[in-house]
Design a protein that fits this description.
4-stranded antiparallel beta sheet, elongated, alpha/beta, Aldehyde Oxidoreductase, domain 3, 2 domains, TIM Barrel, 274 residues, 12 strands, 41% helix
């Protein structure tokens, strides 16, 4: 985490008056405890925030560890006023990132019950200002973070195609984009998927299609010799209840926005013990 990020987060959380003078600067010891089971993420960020305040910290856990209710994740020692200034920001990082990592891990395990090679990916449906941490948490949970920013992969989505039509949009992308960047096309029908494959795009996103439609699309692409070297991504309406249906269609990736926009924060608490 960059210094300016820590200070920006603290400015947002503390504001101009953090009740200075009420809490003494006497040394104390506090423990951060997990209140439920999950996958631990945000530990490095928590340590960096305590480092900013020159608060000593120690932990027997590492990022990505499975944790259970009652586990002491971090022990901190230092001026009580500084520990309490850091408390909410630290707990927010641990809670949100662990929540994303835990949900990702559950979804990955569910998908690989039917397809051991499928990737479970996030999307750009992230919290503004917190994307890199949510994406990091996805990776900690065993998922694929997908692209971080718009420029990293050219994705021709439904609105691009409405404005330009499929073939002209792909042609223009191929003319203007470096060979080092992949071109992905979002389609909502089998016919458009076949056309995009014939035009040699790198990735086809099968968006809002049913598992049965996707399975038929994979069959036709294979039958016509268009499947090799082509990455197929299923997206749209995928959740825990239907994840295995999509993962078993033969796609390479299932991307799920709920990993970030609907992950429930894991519960942690900080308590002064000495």
């Amino acid at each position: 985490m960059l210094l300016k990020e820590i200070e920006s987060f603290l400015e947002e959380d503390l504001g101009p008056d953090d009740y200075g003078g009420i809490v003494p600067y006497t040394d104390c010891k506090a423990e951060i405890t997990a209140k439920e089971e999950g996958v631990l993420a945000g530990l490095e960020e928590a340590k960096q925030i305590f480092d900013y305040f020159s608060v000593h910290h120690s932990s027997e856990f590492e990022t990505g560890d499975r944790i259970k209710s009652g586990d002491i994740i971090l022990t901190v020692k230092g001026p009580s006023a500084k520990i309490l200034k850091a408390e909410r920001l630290v707990l927010n990082f641990l809670g949100q990132m662990s929540g994303v990592a835990t949900l990702t891990n559950v979804l990955v395990n569910e998908a690989r019950k039917v397809n051991e090679h499928v990737k479970v990916a996030g999307t750009r449906k992230t919290t503004p200002g917190f994307r890199k941490y949510e994406k990091k948490a996805i990776a900690i949970g065993g998922g694929d973070p997908h692209r971080f920013r718009l420029y990293e992969t050219v994705i021709l989505k439904d609105n691009h195609i409405k404005l330009m039509e499929l073939e002209p949009a792909i042609k223009k992308a191929k003319e203007q984009v470096s060979f080092t960047r992949k071109i992905e096309v979002e389609v909502e029908s089998i016919d458009d998927a076949l056309r995009a494959a014939e035009l040699k795009v790198d990735i086809i996103m099968l968006d809002n299609m049913t598992p049965a439609e996707i399975k038929e699309c994979v069959r036709l692409l294979t039958e016509r010799g268009l499947r090799d070297g082509l990455i197929l991504e299923a997206s749209g309406g995928i959740k825990m209840g239907n994840l295995k249906d999509f993962a078993s269609t033969g796609v390479d990736v299932v991307s799920i926005g709920m990993i970030t926009h609907s992950a429930r924060s894991l519960n942690f608490s900080l308590n002064v013990v000495e």
